[in-house]
Design brief:
The complex is a heterodimer of chains A (137) and B (562).
Chain A lengths: L13 E2 H6 L5 E4 L17 E6 L6 H11 L5 E6 L3 H9 L4 E4 L5 H9 L15 H6 L1
Parallel strand pairs in A: 1-2, 2-3, 3-4, 4-5
Helix pairs in contact in A: 3-4
Chain B lengths: L5 H22 L5 H9 L3 E3 L4 E5 L5 E3 H14 L3 E4 L5 E6 L4 H9 L17 E2 L14 H11 L14 E4 L13 E8 L2 E8 L12 E7 L3 H15 L10 H8 L1 H15 L8 H9 L38 H10 E3 L5 E6 L10 E3 H14 L3 E4 L5 E7 L3 H10 L14 E2 L14 H10 L3 H7 L4 E4 L13 E8 L2 E8 L11 E2 L6 H18 L6 H8 L1 H9 L1
Parallel strand pairs in B: 6-7, 7-8, 16-17, 17-18
Antiparallel strand pairs in B: 1-2, 2-5, 3-14, 4-5, 4-13, 8-9, 9-10, 11-12, 12-15, 14-15, 18-19, 19-20
Helix pairs in contact in B: 1-2, 1-4, 3-11, 6-8, 7-8, 13-15, 15-16, 15-17
Classes of the chains: A alpha/beta (137), B alpha+beta (562).
């Protein structure tokens, strides 16, 4: 899978308000209470959308990510903040392909978390085929 | 009964392996309790006052004898030889060692069981009507849709960090035996023009702010069942409050923006979600529904005079189905109180009360669990149900076997003939076990049951649902009790508030507080004064709650406080 960590020297992500005011930014950062749907008219010129997780318990970013992928966004979708190893598999299924955790993540643990399950009951924003589809073709 | 295929089994097995690894890392000190906590909670493992508590999921309260025996085995091998059946139709073990937890989950997985999502801010065990598949008044067996929801909600990637826990009930009858409208989402399967659909009630719940779920949409076409559910959850996940744990349930969102506005947002989301193809094809529902096909009932030629006696008037002495009844008055009472009509002629629904006088509501010993498993295997097409009132049901018993079933139950001290009577008490574990509790619940339940121990007195009082919670979280459903009791901490002393007039049934209502609280003995006296008053006020055919609704609080308040 594609999963990468942010590189040095990339364009800093601007806030949603700043992005909507300023037409040339290609990277934007969504806070948990920002409405991801505000970005839908602009998806084709965005290269990076960073979704903030100030606390791992705050799951609004999962919905934001799916909404963006469901609207056809294909650029980088990054989870930033209190991102723990146990969230990464869920995040990946919601369409995140990049992670910028505040703390350090043990790469081995990440690998283990991502390989634990290979069957999924429900359709989400990743390419996984749900179990019901495997059952019925 | 639903049976796992290789996909279901692989998911549960993977979960066991994952948790085994997490526990090993915790025991080795590689992760802190703080880091471990969310992981164990996702597997139903709580840290209580004295030990770990493990909550095992019993999807929609249905299980077979093999699974029931496994519950006995776990109690025997890993706990203190008993288990506690809960208001979520689950079972809890109160004395679990952390190092045993992975083995317990592995044992459960061998009988297609798990503890997934029995805690945490996620979609919890789906509950349903304990008489599903047996009740005459259902339009369809609701369990295939509950199973569909179980699979959809298991490890749902978007809804595993909701603002708060989320409980869903599915029923398919007008008589509500599952407290449907006191759930975050209550679903009633309905028919319109001969086509099945679902009525969605959203935003009910108990806790410190009890709410009855308003109707959000009266008919969702059945093929949109999951996408409409997904839309309901997405609106909640995005807009449910996260600033205050006590205001984070969906009931607060629905209440604050209003049912109409919530429904509008769901419709908007639904219009989008239903284009995503998340609803499985009809073939999947058919595959699941096939597991819930009626068991191979015998065709009994039922003499009309005999039909309908069960659960109603006294059994017909001449009826061979009730052999033994005439010579055994205890059997006759049990038959009248605990046995309910079945949709199939010649069959009945048996309720096993886990509420012996002076006992702990919902507790059963390993030996008793085994007895119930044996009876299910022999007499009930291998099926059992757990009820939200913390009792067990044998859903499909031939009437001719009722006496034999009763004798076996009686020998195991399981023939308590008090279903829906004042001693059939729902009680949370309270301060005897729970780290959240402010007061003990179990001793209050024991004292009240003991005060009203006389079977004739209980039966004279009639249907009276008494429910006790040891703190404001309301796990004992006190808001929905005809008589409710809430334990609070008043300056370091346990104090008990009394409520009257609640109901979790189709006449759903929230109880009202009578006035100042009582101490441990005082609350028992207060309950007795309320029931004495009812006896002086009732009109023919009125239950306690009916009389309360007719006359209001004042006469009761006067009786209670003098």
């Amino acid at each position: 899978m594609v999963e990468h960590f942010p590189t040095e020297g990339e364009e800093p992500a601007v806030t949603l308000d700043a992005f909507l005011d300023q037409s040339n930014a290609t990277a934007v950062r969504l806070e948990p209470d920002d409405d991801a749907r505000a970005l839908i008219p602009h998806l084709d010129r965005l290269a990076l959308i960073e979704i903030a997780f100030p606390k791992y318990r705050d799951g609004r970013g999962y919905s934001s990510a799916r909404i963006l992928r469901e609207a056809g966004y294909t650029g980088e979708l990054r989870a930033q903040g209190d991102v723990l190893v146990d969230q990464i598999a869920f995040m990946k299924r919601c369409g995140f392909d990049s992670f910028a955790p505040e703390g350090s993540l043990n790469p081995e643990a990440v690998e283990r978390a991502l390989s634990t399950y290979d069957q999924y009951y429900q359709k989400a924003a990743d390419a996984a085929v749900p179990v019901w589809k495997l059952r019925h073709g | 009964m639903y049976k796992y295929d290789t996909y279901d089994q692989a998911i549960v097995d993977a979960r066991v392996a994952e948790f085994r690894d997490q526990v090993a890392r915790r025991l080795a000190g590689e992760i802190t309790e703080d880091q471990f906590k969310p992981l164990r909670l996702m597997n139903g493992l709580y840290l209580q006052l004295h030990a770990y508590m493990l909550r095992v999921a019993i999807p929609y309260g249905t299980l077979d004898s093999r699974q029931m025996r496994m519950l006995a085995h776990i109690a025997r091998k890993y706990d203190r030889d008993y288990g506690h059946f809960t208001t979520r139709q689950n079972i809890q073990y109160n004395w679990i060692k952390l190092e045993d937890a992975p083995d317990i989950l592995a044992d459960l997985a061998t009988v297609e069981m798990h503890a997934i999502q029995t805690s945490g801010n996620c979609i919890r065990n789906i509950s349903s009507d304990q008489y599903a598949g047996a009740a005459a008044d259902e339009i369809v067996d609701p369990r295939p849709w509950a199973e569909l929801l179980r699979q959809w909600s298991t490890f749902h990637p978007e809804f595993s960090y909701l603002p708060r826990k989320f409980k869903i009930a599915v029923i398919a009858a007008d008589e509500d035996r599952a407290a449907m409208r006191l759930h975050d989402i209550g679903i009633q399967l309905v028919e319109r023009d001969g086509k099945l659909g679902a009525a969605f009630y959203v935003g009910g719940g108990m806790g410190r702010t009890p709410m009855i779920a308003p109707l959000i949409r009266d008919y969702v076409p059945i093929e949109d069942f999951l996408s409409y559910s997904e839309a309901c959850l997405r609106v909640y996940n995005r807009y449910g409050r996260r600033d205050n744990i006590y205001k984070a349930r969906i009931k607060i969102l629905v209440h604050e923006i209003g049912a109409e506005e919530y429904a509008r947002q769901v419709e908007e989301e639904f219009a989008h979600v239903k284009t995503l193809g998340i609803d499985p094809p009809a073939a999947e529902l058919e595959r699941i529904a096939a597991f819930f096909a009626p068991p191979p009932f015998e065709n009994f030629d039922v003499v009309p005079a005999q039909a309908g006696t069960v659960g109603g008037s006294a059994p017909t002495p001449a009826a061979p189905a009730f052999a033994g009844a005439t010579s055994d008055p205890d059997f006759a009472v049990w038959l009248d109180q605990n046995v309910k009509p079945h949709k199939q002629p010649g069959y009945a629904i048996v309720n096993i009360s886990l509420k012996p006088i002076g006992g702990i509501p919902g507790d059963a010993s390993s030996a008793q669990i085994d007895v119930m498993a044996d009876l299910a295997e022999r007499y009930s097409f291998d099926e059992l149900r757990v009820t939200h009132a913390q009792n067990i049901v044998l859903p499909h018993v031939a009437k001719r076997d009722l006496y034999a079933v009763w004798q076996a139950l009686n020998a195991a001290e399981l023939a308590n003939a008090n279903l829906d009577l004042i001693s059939d008490i729902i009680a949370c574990p309270g301060l005897d076990y729970c780290s959240l509790a402010n007061a003990r619940s179990i001793p209050i339940a024991q004292k009240i049951a003991t005060r009203f121990a006389d079977p004739a007195r209980q039966r004279d009082l009639g249907e009276l649902k008494l429910k006790i919670s040891g703190c404001i979280n309301a796990c004992g459903h006190h808001h929905a009790g005809h008589i409710g009791i809430l334990g609070v901490d008043r300056k370091g002393v346990e104090n008990y508030q009394l409520t009257l007039g609640g109901s979790g049934a189709e006449d759903v209502s929230i109880g009202k507080i009578t006035g100042p609280g009582f101490d441990e003995d005082g609350i028992v006296d207060a309950v007795e004064r309320a029931t004495d008053k009812y006896l002086t006020l009732r009109e023919p055919g009125e239950r306690f709650v009916d009389t309360y609704r007719r006359v209001g609080m004042e006469p009761f308040r006067e009786a209670i406080y003098g």
